[in-house]
Each structure stands twice: as C-alpha cells, then as structure tokens.
User: Fold this.
Amino acid sequence: MIVALAVWDERIAPVFDVARQLVVLSLEDGVAHKQEQVRLSEGLTGQQRALVIEEIGTQKLVCGAISRTLSALIEAMGIEVISFISGSLGEVERALLDSNFNWEKLAMPGCYGTKVEADMENPDKAMNQRGAGRAGGRGSAVCRRGAGTSGSCVCPQCGEKVPHQRGRPCFEVNCSKCGTAMAREF
Ligand SMILES: [Zn+2]
Assistant:
C-alpha cells in the first residue's frame, strides 16, 4: 500500500492545495517504510497535483484541508483521500498502521466525523458531486462547518488578503496582485 502524506515541517500541511512537499510511505506487513520525498513546485494547478499523486502510485492520500474539486478529482482516480487531518508524521504513521484507527482523533479543529456531509455553502454543488459518485467518500473526513463563512482568503505567494465571500471558496479566487489561487486562512 503506497500512502502519500502532504506535509509541512514534519506535520500534515494545513492546506493540500498549496502544500509543497509529499512524503511517500509504503506500508507492508505492519511496517511503514519511507519511500521518497516529493517536492511540489509553486504554481502547480490542482490537476497537476492530482497527476503527481497518481504518478507516485498513491493508493491513499492523507492531507489537511483540500478543495472539493481537487478531492473529487483524486478520488476519481481510485485513490482514497483522508482529508482534514492534522498531526505529526509520527502520529499519522501510527494511525495508518492501525486498521481500526478512528481518524476523528486526528481531525482538524472544527472538523470531525468520517461521514460525508453536504457542503453547507454550496448544497447544489455538493449534491452534484455526490450524484457523480464520489466513490462513496469512504474514509474521508469532511469538515462539517466547511471553512466557515467569515474570515479571509490569503495569497500563499505574496500574502495579499481579501475578505472571504460567502459561497465562493478561496481556491476559486485568484490573487489580484500575482494571480495565484488563494487559500483559506485558518
Ligand atoms: Zn498574490
């Protein structure tokens, strides 16, 4: 089993869409072997990120927050996405080796549950994605509150901030200064 972890500073990166590093583990006979580290260049599109994940031979991806479109794209490749996870590499490694592990224990603050829930901000979109058969969303944790409806979107490239608009995810907003897709500030 090949598992890719989106990391930052030895922990799961808070936002997969802008994560710069992957740690690839191979799980065999209850032991995790570190296979390789993959650097993701800046400015990769979601689709390019998904292709990297696929090319590595990933069967399971463990990440922090991830946009719905990107998560759906990766799941459509037959890869299990365990998202909205927060924790150190060690914690995640131990969790992966425990087949009965309850991922809620490593859920990001404000996110819990391994149920797929409707996107409160985009109920229509969420319904369509489900209708399109998101592989049942097995094993993926979805943030119940979404990322909330207030706060700001921040540019991972230049730091520009704009107020978050209700119903419009930050990753769909391009920075007015440099054009980079913005990220939700947690
Ligand atoms: Zn910018």
User: Anything to note?
Assistant: Strands lie at 2-8, 11-12, 21-28, 31-39, 60-62, 80-82, 152-154, 161-163, 183-184. Residues 149-186 form one domain. Confidence is low (pLDDT under 50) at residues 113-149.
